[in-house]
Specification:
With 211 residues, the protein is mainly α. It has 10 helices and 2 strands. A hairpin with a 2-residue loop joins strand 1 and strand 2.
Length: 211
């Protein structure tokens, strides 16, 4: 009423102010949280989309991208840590070799598999994941890399599934040869030298057996 009287006195038309609810509805929504009482509800635009597999894949992609953007100093630290851990686990696996003949090669398999994973991780931090995978599966190295990884998984499986030394030892021999061939593939003329050494060793053994 006082506003109407004031408008008559001043000669200006009175425009009623919008109620709080209408004013709030007129304001554009710029995103963010929606306040309802004392509870903050996430806006519909920030709700996660997709199932759990898509969210897991997105999280893995973000972590993988963060791994590829590490500084050179952090890469060198991770490389040294993985290389030292791999050498320690490899030495520990040699201590458990005798357990293969006792029918319990599980400790050897675990330590040996971890040693290989740490050593692969060291080179992964050094050259980067994408370059590492591209180099591993180049045409001249794809077969060796596949045999190396498959024999490592097979060694881990047979050590727990059977545990007999006459099953574990042949798989271990194949894995060691594949490991040597994989390492030699990064050395110039390494695979040719390894082939010559194997032929010379096999020839000596055949000569000894035939004598």
């Amino acid at each position: 009423m006082f506003s109407l009287v004031s408008s008559k006195v001043t000669g200006k038309e009175h425009v009623p102010s919008a109620p709080p609810a209408a004013a709030a509805a007129a304001e554009p929504n710029t995103g963010g949280d929606i306040e309802e009482g004392k509870t903050l509800l996430p806006s519909p635009s920030s709700a996660p989309t997709g199932g759990p597999l898509r969210r897991l894949a997105s999280q893995f992609s973000e972590e993988f991208s963060a791994l590829t953007t590490l500084s050179w100093r952090n890469r060198m630290i991770a490389f040294v840590f993985c290389a030292l851990a791999g050498c320690m686990m490899l030495g520990l696996s040699f201590m458990y070799v005798s357990l293969i003949f006792l029918g319990s090669p599980a400790k050897f398999a675990i330590s040996y598999a971890l040693a290989n994973l740490f050593l692969l991780g060291s080179s992964l931090f050094l050259v980067g994941p994408s370059k590492q995978l591209a180099q591993m599966f180049q045409p001249e190295r794809a077969v060796v890399s596949g045999v190396y990884l498959a024999s490592l998984l097979l060694l881990f499986y047979v050590s727990f599934a059977w545990g007999y030394f006459f099953v574990v030892l042949p798989v271990l021999a194949v894995q060691l040869v594949a490991l040597l061939a994989y390492v030699a593939s990064y050395v110039p003329f390494g695979q040719g030298m390894l082939t010559r050494i194997c032929r010379w060793t096999l020839g000596r053994q055949l000569t000894f057996l035939s004598a």
